[in-house]
Amino acid sequence: MNRSALMGLGMGILAGCLSVDDGAADGKVVVREAKPESGVKVIDMAMEVRYYPVPTPIVCRLSSASCEMRGFSAEEKTSEVVAKDTSEDRAWKDLLARFDVLWPEGSSLAYLRDNGLLRVRNTEENHEHIVQALLLLNEPQEQFEVSVEFLSVEQKTLDAVGRELVKGKPDNARYVLSDFDDVPAAKFHASLVGNREVKILSSAKALAGNGENVVVKDVVEYIYPQDYDVSLGEMASGSSNETRQVRQAGLAVVEPQNLTMREIGTILDVTPTLLTGGNGNGVELRLRPQHVGEPEWNDYGMRLPAPNGGKYELQMKQPFFPCRSVDTTLRIGLGAYALVGASRVAPKAGNESPLCLVFVRVRLAGDAPKK
């Protein structure tokens, strides 16, 4: 929403905001505090009561925060009823507090749902913050594009990138991730993906609104047994011709039991929340990406003697799923990269395993990517 539109909405809110007399001749309330040592002390905290029309998008935003929308009817606007602090009123206070609205002693808020109004008693300064908060909350919710990449990096490739980005080490030095602490994550990422030796294990991208949880999957479902049932000869039941033939021959039969499913591929679970007010700038990400590779099957079966004197095998295979995942919450600037995870599996047969690095980037949807 552009500035002129915001100003127009602001004038509408201000025009719809009505100050009323709340017991004082000038329409303001003076809070008095009793002090034993000095009698009655007047605190310079004049308050006004104003009614604010609440646009529908703001009500919808509060509803999305799991607030119980009860409110007061027009007939319940007595001082005794308004003084009640319902869960909905507390949710409104918490929402406005994110925009630096304070709630000093003597202040109050009530949502008059039937009228679509907020009844607020507060200081003039806080009323100004409320107007600005309603302007910002009425803007269309931003959408964020969150990208995650899992990169496989051999040690020799990391050393080559280190010689390019990190100064002060010998040419034959071995580089570790801590050597890149002073290198911007975006520059580190660009150097890695620009190297032909780096493999992108998987990547995922999600489009999510402010505070919206989104799950993106690119997976294949693997169904496998958790148990096996071994039976001998005619003691077992079966329907297939092959099974009947095996039983008639007096051989053991293995039947899979307790089938379950595992998703193989890439899963991105993310919730972006725009930071406002005193919380800083950028986005807070609740991030849970994972990459599950093709399973390796291990056979726990056995070889048994056959009636004809030979041997036959009972196969009881179980899968092992290589999984790389991150479960974290971080704050990140719009358009920025962050390295959120790194791991290296145990070496096999004396060969050093590659590093797995996990990068995340967040930007406003529709923004052109930086070159």
> Unreliable runs, pLDDT <50, ≥5 residues?
1-16, 19-43, 64-84
| Main sheet makeup | 5 strands, antiparallel
- Number of helical segments with 4 or more residues: 8
* Rg calc: 32 Å
Coarse shape: flat
Distance between the termini: 27 Å
Q: Helicity range of the residues? A: 10-25%
> Total number of β-strand segments?
19
Strand content: 35-45%
Instruction: Output the structural class.
Output: alpha+beta
What's the pLDDT, averaged over the residues?
77
**In sequence order, what are the helices and strands, one letter per element?**
HEEEEHHHEEHEHHEEHEEEEEEEEEE
Give the helices and strands, then pairings:
Blueprint: H1 3-16, E1 18-20, E2 32-35, E3 39-42, E4 47-53, H2 56-64, H3 79-82, H4 87-97, E5 108-112, E6 117-123, H5 124-137, E7 143-153, H6 155-165, H7 185-193, E8 199-209, E9 214-232, H8 241-248, E10 252-274, E11 283-292, E12 296-299, E13 302-305, E14 311-314, E15 317-320, E16 323-325, E17 328-332, E18 337-343, E19 355-364
Antiparallel strand pairs: 1-4, 2-3, 4-6, 5-6, 7-8, 7-19, 9-10, 10-11, 11-16, 11-17, 12-15, 13-14, 18-19
Helix pairs in contact: 1-5
